[in-house]
Design goal:
The structure holds two protein chains of two kinds. By secondary structure, chain A is α/β, with parallel strands linked by helices. Chain A has a single domain (9-102, 151-231), classed as 3-Layer(aba) Sandwich (Rossmann fold), CATH 3.40.50. Chain A has helices at 51-58, 81-91, 107-118, 122-135, 151-163, 181-197, 209-212, and strands at 9-18, 25-35, 40-44, 66-71, 74-75, 92-95, 169-173, 201-205, 217-222, 225-231. Chain A has a six-stranded mixed sheet with strand order 6-7-8-3-9-10, sandwiched between helices. In chain A, strands 2-1-4-5 form a four-stranded antiparallel sheet, covered by helices on one side. Chain B is an alpha+beta fold. In chain B, 57% of the residues lie in helices and 17% in strands. Chain B is built from 13 helices and ten strands. In chain B, strands 2-3-8-5-7-6 form a six-stranded mixed β-barrel. In chain B, a hairpin with a 2-residue loop joins strand 6 (173-176) and strand 7 (179-187). Classes of the chains: A alpha/beta, B alpha+beta. The A-B interface holds A 56, 59, 61-62, 81-82, 85-86, 88-90, 94, 96, 100-102, 104, 113-114, 116-119, 161 and B 1, 4, 15, 309-310, 312-323, 396-397, 400.
Chain lengths: 237, 403
């Protein structure tokens, strides 16, 4: 596969419209974006700028009103709910601002969750989940429940859950939003490390310029359009 | 995947023990009542059937009195039966193979210090065969004793034990009412009882002795006949009726002043009543199962709302609609099956207790147990489907945003 020839994902004239007629709101208005494998992109913009809408569509959680979304060169725009679920299961990993771990469930079981839906046998599931927890520095915390972990640790569990399926792309929605700046930087360093060492592509929504500095490309949304798209040297990398 | 869903459902159910228990309580009560009803119902049906079987097969009973007033109804004002009636029946109704007269009266019997009130029956030697009695000790009446009315008697085990004690009573002399009577035999103990009466509390003596010394008349209270195998009870009854009408000089428009009972028919009526009662009570129990199912649906809907975020997370990591549906459906089924199993255990326990209290056999029916189990699962599917579908149809974006 020639990475340069086929972008990992590509948005073509993508629009998302809420409401009808007079009440029409363009959440996304003719967006074009192309992401290569291995990129670490920060998506910035004020609230209501369309960055969340874009993330939902990129994460196959939502469908665009018009335009095309190509994932690994394949048009996924017209897929139904179950087909999109399968795309998420095999190709995408999610990290949320609020961690979104299952309460009353151990760290290990949280990480195993996507593998259960992949139908991986219990033994292999356990091994791979332990490996993922080790990668995020949580060996020894496998049996802890989210309530027994700090915010930073919870986000690490979430990252382990996102990478355990070895997805092509990690979608992170304000991953440091609920953390203090020191913990936030630790999480960012972990993401950078995974991006470099594991070749994971990362698309991260953030409104904190400090955090965006860790990315090697910054895309800024304003009023449903991409205002700027800058490739840059990574901060402190 | 199904195994995972099952594991997940079990852990969810057991995590909220109290809530799960309250949720399934409706099912528990419903299933338990069905099982207890049916168990007790079957026990009493079997009891009635064995009572009737103990009366002997192909048995008809003729009593004086107009029909429709139940056994013994109206017998006082009707022309009594006589031994001649019995002999006529034996002679002119070819299907009848045996007949025995009997008259009974309650008497106080005394032996030494002991006294006991018991039903004393005067009859002939055919009685034992027709009623299916065998002897443990001694003998039945001889022809001579029947002819001259010698006061000899055969005791039931309960009577014998009450008066004389355990063991062989043959040879002792007891007082029956005003007469002395020599014990010549002991009946074998019979397990069944006739509609609640103890069959083993009985004294049998020759009819002539009974008529002369106890009743003081020549009446026969009832005639029991057995008919040959293959003959129909209805046909034999018709023949008996026409003969008896002739003997009692009833003209065409007069109705019968005697009664022919088919004991099997009485048993089927009784069994029918038990069946109807069981059916009615089971219908009530089925309604409580319905209510139980609605309880499960209610809690599952609450559960779906509470776990909206969890559903969103599962969808984000790749759960399909059918997988989410399956998770909640399996949970509902697990809940209702737990309810079903608890209900089966409780129902069998109550059934055993009820059978013991009513002094009937404990007859659990495995079919109703299996049916209850399957029915609980069906309740889970039916009432779990709607909440599960609601979970499966959630929009993952909305679900993830849910607090």
């Amino acid at each position: 596969m020639t990475a340069a020839a086929t972008p990992m994902l590509e948005l073509r004239h993508l629009s998302k419209i809420y409401g009808v007629d007079e009440a029409k709101v363009y959440a996304l208005n003719d967006v074009n974006l192309s992401v290569q494998k291995g990129e670490f992109i920060a998506v910035m913009g004020p609230s209501g700028s369309g960055k969340s809408s874009a993330m939902n569509i990129l994460g196959c959680l939502d469908t665009p009103t018009s335009g095309q979304y190509l994932l690994f060169g394949t048009d996924v725009t017209g897929l139904d709910r179950d087909q999109r679920a399968l795309l998420r299961r095999h190709f995408l990993g999610f990290i949320f601002q609020g961690f979104n771990l299952l309460a009353r469930t151990t760290a290990l079981e949280n990480v195993e969750l996507p593998l259960i839906y992949q139908g991986i046998p219990a033994e292999e599931r356990r091994e791979r989940s332990m490996d993922a927890l080790i990668k995020v520095g949580l060996q020894g915390r496998a049996d802890h429940r989210p309530s027994e972990l700090s915010g930073g640790q919870q986000q690490r569990v979430a990252i382990a859950r996102a990478i355990v399926t070895k997805p092509g792309l990690i979608l992170a929605d304000e991953p440091t939003g609920n953390l203090d700046s020191a913990r936030g930087r630790e999480i960012m360093e972990l993401l950078v490390q995974l991006n470099r060492e594991e070749g994971l592509s990362v698309l991260m929504v953030t409104h904190e310029p400090d955090m965006a500095d860790y990315a090697n490309r910054i895309v800024t949304f304003v009023d449903g359009k991409i205002q700027s798209d800058k490739v840059r040297d990574r901060h402190a990398a | 995947m199904l195994l995972e869903a099952l594991r997940l459902a079990l852990s969810t159910v057991f995590r909220n023990k109290l809530r799960s228990f309250l949720t399934v309580l409706g099912i528990v009560i419903g299933v338990a009542s069905v099982i207890a009803m049916v168990t007790v119902g079957q026990g009493s049906t079997a009891q009635v059937q064995s009572d009737v079987a103990s009366l002997g097969s192909n048995l008809l009973m003729i009593r004086p009195g107009a029909p429709g007033r139940g056994p013994g109804g109206g017998s006082n004002d009707a022309t009594p039966l006589t031994l001649a009636d019995m002999q006529a029946l034996l002679r002119y109704v070819p299907d009848i193979v045996a007949a025995t007269p009997s008259s009974s009266r309650s008497q106080t019997v005394v032996f030494g210090e002991m006294n006991h009130t018991v039903q004393v029956t005067g009859t002939d030697d055919a009685y034992f065969g027709i009623r299916g009695w065998t002897l443990d000790f001694g003998r039945i009446f001889s022809d001579g004793e029947m002819r001259i009315g010698t006061p000899v008697c055969v005791l039931g085990t309960t009577t014998s034990v009450a008066l004389i004690g355990e063991g062989n009573p043959v040879g002792t002399t007891i007082r029956v009412g005003k007469i002395s009577c020599e014990v010549i035999g002991l009946l074998a103990k019979r397990e069944a009882s006739t509609f609640g009466q103890d069959d083993n509390d009985i004294i049998v003596m020759p009819l002539k002795a009974f008529q002369r010394r106890i009743s003081g008349n020549k009446n026969v209270q009832s005639i029991s006949v057995t008919f040959r195998d293959g003959a129909k009870a209805e046909d034999v009854t018709t023949q008996i009726q026409s003969l008896m009408r002739e003997r009692r000089k009833l003209t065409g428009d007069q109705s019968d002043d005697f009664n022919v009972f088919d004991m099997k028919q009485i048993s089927s009526v009784l069994t029918g009543i038990t069946g109807v009662l069981t059916g009615l009570l089971s219908a009530v129990a089925a309604i409580s199962l319905l209510v139980g199912g609605i309880g499960i649906m209610n809690i599952m809907l609450v559960s779906v709302t509470e776990r909206t975020r969890e559903i969103g997370i599962r969808m984000a990591v790749g759960a399909t609609e059918s997988q989410v549906l399956m998770q909640f459906l399996v949970e509902a089924i697990v809940l209702s099956l737990i309810g079903g199993i608890l209900g089966i255990l409780l129902g069998l326990g109550l059934g055993a207790l009820g059978s013991y209290a009513l002094n009937i056999g404990f007859l659990p029916d495995y079919r109703i147990v299996v049916a209850s189990f399957i029915f609980s699962a069906v309740v889970g599917v039916v009432f779990g489907y709607f909440p599960a579908r609601r979970a499966a149809r959630l929009d993952p974006i909305e679900a993830l945003r849910h607090q």
